[in-house]
Design brief:
The protein is of the alpha/beta class and 312 residues long. The chain has a single domain, classed as Alpha/Beta hydrolase fold, catalytic domain (Rossmann fold). The chain contains 11 helices and 8 strands. Strands 2-1-4-3-5-6-7-8 form an 8-stranded mixed sheet, with helices on both faces. α3 crosses α11, α4 crosses α5 and α6 packs antiparallel against α7. The longest helix has 18 residues. The two termini are 37 Å apart. The relative contact order is 0.14.
């Protein structure tokens, strides 16, 4: 419930009720981990030179990686399986999803600097896996880390996004339109007020904003104007995406219309009419019969994830 509240109103909580605002932390077995060398060594006694950092989506937490469709908890996450199959050490991050993605991107870059500096063995490679908003956060952190010359950036090998709204999420666009329309008339303006309280993080999903230039100094409620700045991928890293559809055939009209229930294929793949996220041909996967939340723990997703991380 706290993660859900932070997703909806996390920026307000951080400003007015900081005790309820979730800090960005590394989490293991339900607890925050201090990022000094002794604490990390004690927490990760089998630390390997290769890390995979998992970033959850809006209003979720690191616990989501153990949740299957329907909310059932499973014994193994993707990280657990990658540790077994590829000898990778998983690192799970929890963060306030109601904050600006660009602000969280800077915070994640600083956190990864601390983690890699204190890691018990030299970090040879670091991969990022983000579900939904987590994929935008991964791109933002790579961008800011690269600008700042962060020590962790050269180790990045792969960035994998699962159902990420790179070009925006239809639900936020719909809420934005309803907010704008209702606020035009005095009779309906009161109905718009609850919609207008949604967090900056939610608003960033309207067009998939990952840097502060997308919003700084602009009206956050201007009508459907996409100011998104396209930031380049890290030249030395490989970027992958998974796009899903509720229909078993991704090309079925229902699949093209609904996507995975929250994100459609053009957005998840970054292939829009006016914007294009530079994924290379062949670095994406389309899965049928998979909903948005199921992407965090699904056998078909894991098979693809394992293949990409084993080969790249």
């Amino acid at each position: 419930m706290l993660s859900a509240a932070n997703g909806l109103w996390g920026d307000t909580l951080a400003e007015r009720h900081p005790a309820l605002a979730i800090p960005m932390t590394v989490r293991v077995e339900g607890r925050d981990i201090a990022l000094d060398r002794a604490s990390i060594a004690a927490t990760f006694p089998g630390a390997t030179p290769r890390l995979v950092v998992f970033l959850h989506g809006l209003s979720l937490s690191e616990e989501s990686w153990w949740r299957q469709a329907g909310g059932r908890r499973t014994a193994r996450s993707y990280g657990d399986r990658l540790g077994r199959d590829l000898g990778i050490t998983p690192v799970y991050v929890r963060y306030n999803t109601g904050l600006r993605i660009s602000d969280n991107g800077r915070s994640l870059s600083r956190l990864l600097d601390e983690v890699t500096a204190s890691w018990p063995v030299p970090v040879r490679r670091l991969d990022l896996v983000g579900h939904s908003m987590g994929g935008l956060l991964a791109r933002s952190a790579c961008h800011y880390g690269n600008l700042d010359g962060a020590a962790w950036v050269p180790a990045v090998g792969a960035v994998v996004t699962l159902g990420t709204p790179h070009l925006g999420a239809p639900l936020e666009k719909g809420v934005h339109v309803a907010d704008w329309v209702l606020s035009r008339l005095p009779e309906t303006a009161p109905l718009a007020r609850p919609l207008r309280t949604r967090s900056a993080g939610v608003r960033d999903l309207r067009h998939g904003s990952v840097v502060e230039e997308d919003w700084l100094g602009d009206d956050p409620d201007e009508f459907l104007r996409d100011r998104s700045t396209e930031v380049p991928f890290l030249e030395h890293a490989t970027y992958y995406f998974v796009a899903a559809s509720l229909s078993r055939d991704p090309d079925h009209p229902a699949g093209r219309l609904l996507g995975d229930g929250l994100v459609r294929y053009p957005s998840a793949s970054g292939q829009g009419h006016t914007r294009r996220i530079p994924f290379e041909i062949g670095n994406g996967a389309r899965l049928g019969g998979v909903g948005h939340l199921a992407l965090v723990n699904h056998p078909a997703v894991y098979r693809q994830l394992r293949a990409w991380l084993a080969s790249s």
